[in-house]
Amino acid sequence: MVYAVRVVYRYVRRYFKFLLVGVMNAAVDLGVLNALLLAFPTRSPLVLMAYNTIGVMAAICNSYLWNRFWTFGDIATGSRREKMKFALQSLINLVLNDAILVGANDYLVTHRGLPYMLGSNIAKGGAMFASSSVSYVFMRMFVFKRRNVLHLETHRR
Q1: What's the CA dihedral at 107, 61, 79, 67 to 10 degrees?
Q2: Largest CA distance in the chain
Q3: Radius of gyration of the chain measured on its C-alpha atoms
Q4: Nearest CA to 22 among 138, 135, 154?
Q5: Where are the alpha helices (DSSP H) in the chain?
Q6: pLDDT one-digit tens code per residue, 45-88
Q7: Contact 94/61 with Cβ under 8 angstroms?
Q8: Measured torsion, CA atoms of residues 25, 31, 36, 38, in degrees rounded to the nearest 10
Q9: Angle, nearest 10°, between helix axes 2-39 and 45-66?
């Protein structure tokens, strides 16, 4: 029973760390996107996607550092394989984020008549929610996966 409580506590604690890192990532991502939109206004979906890509890449760098050393610090190895898995997860995150942002922004601005900045930020919120949810599953189950100790012992012989 005590072991089960510890496992649940560890899982909940890790998830809340991930959420806190997500808030920091959101601040970086939204900050970069809005700074670019304010400095270089556009209505072009391609330029919006480029701005979003820059913001997401900045957030991904922030995410790797905080998740590697803090959220998943007890199980992360920093190996080349782990970094490649993180890069693959990041690419999926980026494509999903860009697709949702551009599609939702078009719908909100063109079909619902919202002002461009408002539509872009609402669309970005949906894109961030969807891509970060997928990202957590990938990071927990694929990138920073705890290796089975018995499996490691078998391969050391």
Answers
A1: -80
A2: 66
A3: 18
A4: 135
A5: 2-39, 45-66, 80-106, 116-138, 149-156
A6: 999 999 999 999 999 999 989 988 998 888 888 899 989 998 99
A7: no
A8: 160
A9: 140
Question: Tens digit of pLDDT for each residue in 100-149?
Answer: 999 999 999 999 999 999 999 999 999 998 988 888 888 878 888 766 54
Q: What is the DSSP letter of 108?
A: I
Amino acid type, 113: G
What DSSP state is assigned to residue 80?
H
Cα separation, 42 vs 50, in Å, equals 11
CA dist., res. 70 & res. 57, Å (int)? 19
From the centroid of its chain, how far is CA 102?
17
Nearest by Cα to 98 from 50, 35, 141: 50
Q: Dig out the tokens for 1 from the structure.
A: 């029973």
